[in-house]
Design goal:
The structure is a single chain. The protein has helices at 20-33, 44-48, 52-61, 72-80, 98-103, 113-126, 149-163, 185-204, 216-221, 356-363, 367-372; strands at 14-19, 38-42, 66-71, 86-91, 107-110, 130-135, 167-173, 210-212, 229-232, 257-262, 265-269, 274-275, 281-282, 287-292, 309-312, 315-320, 328-331, 342-346, 380-383. The chain has 387 residues and is of the alpha/beta class. It is elongated and about 80 Å long. The protein contains eleven helices and 19 strands. Helix 1 (20-33) crosses helix 3 and helix 7 (149-163) packs parallel to helix 8. Bound molecules: pyridoxal-5'-phosphate. Pyridoxal-5'-phosphate is lined by residues 42, 44, 90, 175, 215-216, 231-235, 241.
């Protein structure tokens, strides 16, 4: 157990146990599914809340060969922690740390001419070429360079900078809008547009090391999208991209995070007792209440008020009343588990506990958000770190 070595697990108010053995097995399952392609472990937003550095290390140990982040700061933090190999980051604003990224041997994504101009200037100052990947908007309508004139201009300018020794174009890539809805017409349209934009760049002389478009849902369901590299985020953490696609087990994946807390109080209350702010829950009869010492400051959605499921003493309970900043209450229906008993909010599900997907459905969101929003006040406890 690293990261929180001084704190005895049993005494923790709350903990997010991170099963790195499960993460390594998930990487191996994804490698098998994307045979012939390299795997990028996407560890943005602190590894979807699981801890970017330990997860990145475990993913590389299991055969991932790239790391991916949204921001340059996230990529630089991985390097500072000593992570080797290829790292791509894709979300830049003017004035970003281009030179630091170049000096740290980080691949940077360019979606427009402003970014190429800034990276070229930084490469001149650094005295070494930048590794750049050109991002095509093949239909997502978010980041990425538009097809047509914009793409022609970006590709042409990148090739001129490459000829001057200022950049090396290491990748051409894109991102799907609806890969979690197999059969959605945008998927085939984006693949066609990607092939066209890639062919244009290659015809002009771009020689990318990697061509890539697949995220987790595309990696799991769309082999023709794998190209040279798949960028897997949520699947790495053992969560299905969408319940419509299947459960994690359907894809040979296992959830990595188990979120639990220690009951801070168990007490008897009479019928008609209002519970938590606003009294949106009133005890229907004589009962017992359990106090779970985590709240929205820890990333428990306030939308889980009255709906979030929790396993206490072998039984599913539902959050009674509102989730507060630091705590919420469950009605234990007369049971009296000892104070300090474990309340499991979500985990893999095989001890009968809810899953992150159950929480997503209870809160009207996606499981991505449930795991990613777990806050820094909750210590991550890493298990099975060995190979
Ligand atoms: C977050 C992200 C991914 C990973 O998506 P998952 O659905 O979690 O696999 C891949 N590519 C880009 C550009 C992303 O922003």
């Amino acid at each position: 157990m690293s990261e929180t070595p001084a704190v005895p697990t049993a005494a923790l108010r709350a903990r997010a146990e991170i099963d790195l053995g499960a993460l390594r097995a998930n990487v191996r399952a994804l490698r098998a599914r994307a045979e012939g392609a390299a795997v990028m472990a996407v560890v943005k937003s602190d590894g979807y809340g699981h801890g970017a550095v330990p997860c990145a290390r475990a993913a590389l140990a299991a055969g991932a060969s790239w790391l991916g982040t949204a921001t340059a700061e996230e990529a630089l933090a991985l390097r500072a922690a000593g992570l080797p190999g290829r790292i791509l980051c894709w979300l830049w604003v003017p004035g970003g740390p281009w030179r630091q990224a170049i000096e740290a041997d980080i691949d940077v994504s360019l979606s427009g001419m402003w970014a190429l101009r800034e990276v070229v200037e930084a490469a001149r100052a650094a005295g070494r070429p930048a590794r750049v990947q050109l991002k095509a908007d093949t239909g997502l309508g978010r980041n990425g360079c538009q097809p047509g004139e914009d793409w022609a201009e970006l590709v042409g300018a990148a090739l001129r900078a490459e000829a001057e020794g200022l950049v090396r174009v290491t990748g051409v890539w894109s991102h799907f809008a609806c890969a979690d809805e197999p059969g959605h017409p945008s998927i085939a349209a984006q693949l066609t547009k990607f092939r066209e934009m890639l062919a244009y760049a290659e015809d002009r002389g771009v020689r990318p090391e990697v061509r890539h478009i697949a995220n987790s849902p595309a990696t799991l369901t769309l082999p023709e999208s794998h190209f040279d590299l798949v960028r897997t985020g949520i699947a790495l953490y053992g969560v299905s991209p969408s319940p419509e696609l299947g459960t994690p087990a359907d894809f040979g994946l296992r959830p990595v995070m188990t979120l639990s807390a220690s009951l801070a109080l168990v007490k008897r209350t009479p019928a008609g007792h209002g519970v938590s702010y606003g009294h949106h829950y009133v005890t229907p009869g004589d009962t017992t209440l359990g106090l779970v010492p985590v709240g929205y400051a820890d990333g428990i959605p306030r939308h889980a008020s009255g709906t979030g499921p929790v396993l206490v003493d072998g039984k599913w309970r539902t959050i009674a009343g509102r989730v507060a900043m630091d705590q919420f209450v469950v009605d234990l229906g007369g049971d009296e588990p000892p104070v300090g008993s474990e309340a499991v909010l979500f985990g893999p599900g095989d001890r009968g506990e809810p899953t992150a997907e159950d929480w997503a459905q209870a809160c009207g969101t996606i499981a991505y958000e449930i795991v990613t929003r777990i806050g820094t006040r909750v210590p991550r406890v890493y298990v099975d770190e060995s190979m």
